[in-house]
């Protein structure tokens, strides 16, 4: 009887475990139904219009959708919430045929009225506190109805009309080369009008340099995407997204996707090896070989970014002299920097944008490493004893900047070798760095970069140098007009040619920033993770991701 009872008992235990596991999977509680991914920084909030960087866009891109989408793994366009888009009136009118049968995650129907409610909301935003945070909208639409914020241009947006429930018509005041690609920006995601009203989405307050956002932005983000908001546990630094079972398209394969915020890259690696996360972003370039050797999948994004040394001409009069800025360019051994501190496949670009973007000018003025020439230019400009405050970020890893402290150290030493005294100013990425550099312009030099959002040169050059900005501290109407004219050139070949000339002029006549690197960025995941497609835009989609039984 004892062997029989033992077999029966073992069977009961096994059945209980299977039943428990099935119950957990049904409730999204099992490991096979949950993907845990390690990320580098805390999102600012979850309302796309008030954000401008990848760690905020990562969860938003899963919860929201845009009128036009990007094909996975590329910057090519495909239908999103609009099944087609048609320009007319020389590109000043865009007609969107909308996908039918779509609902927001709160049950509100998606239709043309909802689309227009979003565009009208952005255009009519009141208050400097809100508008100063709407960086993408300001760059793309060049102004607001009331122009109370940082952007003071003539607005591009005119109006939006719901021709019928399934057709939205957007009217612009002039052509812009960013469209149609810019309609795919995560910042221009379509939110539920019901949820925005219920949770006071436009309630943004400012205290000094800090901003506070609404209940909608922090607790109730509501889009149409395949994953929906499940909460932000700030004590444990985890963002939980849940499968949207009412999604109009293919349902998410995982019941839960958890983004675990682990600012230190080495700590992310340790958690991967310990099995507490299924993957992480921005592995150290030095670790790629060992991670592959240990059986992990190392996935590469195609280079679509730029790392630059920004030069602020406002605070130190010497930096207004082009010869001084050129001396800094000659004085940095960019080839050695890329070879030793940037990921495999990184290159030194000829322009302040990656080579993959139409309008790149490979024949722009080059600045090969030449410390003797750098010293001579400084002496000629009377700036041989130059002292500069060099700001660089901490507590962050960016696709274009895997280890900011290491990169700063290399550049600072190169500058010391040509006689420049460097005062290092490290600041946390989400603890004042971006505000001090981009809004207040406290620095003389700074490290920053950009991962392209769509394939147009204006997304780089226009964003950086299209109008006066505190980051660079210069006001050069001739350059602003040149970039405006390039952006307004409709013919594709002439559009690219205009930006090529702008790139030549930027590198030879203005040099507001020194391009350092354009580099692939990497993601590392376990063998069990399937279906994660690296995006050059860092717009990875996690809904199609699954885990096989090997986990």
Task: Provide a descriptive summary of the structure in words.
- With 551 residues, this protein is α+β, with helices and mostly antiparallel strands.
- The chain has 3 domains: 31-62 and 226-301 and 521-551, Periplasmic binding protein-like II (D-Maltodextrin-Binding Protein, domain 2); 64-211, Dipeptide-binding Protein, Domain 1 (Dipeptide-binding Protein, domain 1); 305-517, Dipeptide-binding Protein, domain 3 (Roll), CATH 3.10.105.
- The protein has 17 helices and 22 strands.
- A hairpin with a 4-residue loop joins strand 4 (82-88) and strand 5.
- The longest helix is centred in the first third of the chain and has 25 residues, at 2-26.
- It starts with a helix and ends with a strand.
- 49% of the residues are buried.
Task: Output the keywords.
551 residues, alpha+beta, D-Maltodextrin-Binding Protein, domain 2, Dipeptide-binding Protein, domain 1, Dipeptide-binding Protein, domain 3, seven-stranded mixed beta sheet, five-stranded mixed beta sheet, 22 strands, 31% helix, 21% strand, disordered N terminus
Secondary-structure topology with pairs:
Elements (H helix, E strand, L loop, with lengths): L1 H25 L7 E6 L14 H10 L4 E3 L6 E3 L2 E7 L4 E6 L13 H12 L4 H4 L3 H7 L15 E8 L2 E6 L20 H6 L6 E3 L2 E3 L2 H5 L7 E7 L4 E6 L12 E6 L3 H10 L4 E3 L6 H6 L3 E4 L4 E7 L10 H9 L3 H8 L29 H10 L6 E8 L9 H14 L3 E8 H11 L5 E7 L9 H5 L11 H11 L4 H19 L2 E5 L4 E4 L3 E2 L15 E2 L4
Parallel strand pairs: 1-12, 1-13, 16-17, 16-18
Antiparallel strand pairs: 2-3, 4-5, 5-7, 6-7, 8-9, 10-11, 11-12, 13-20, 14-20, 15-18, 15-19, 21-22
Helix pairs in contact: 10-12, 16-17
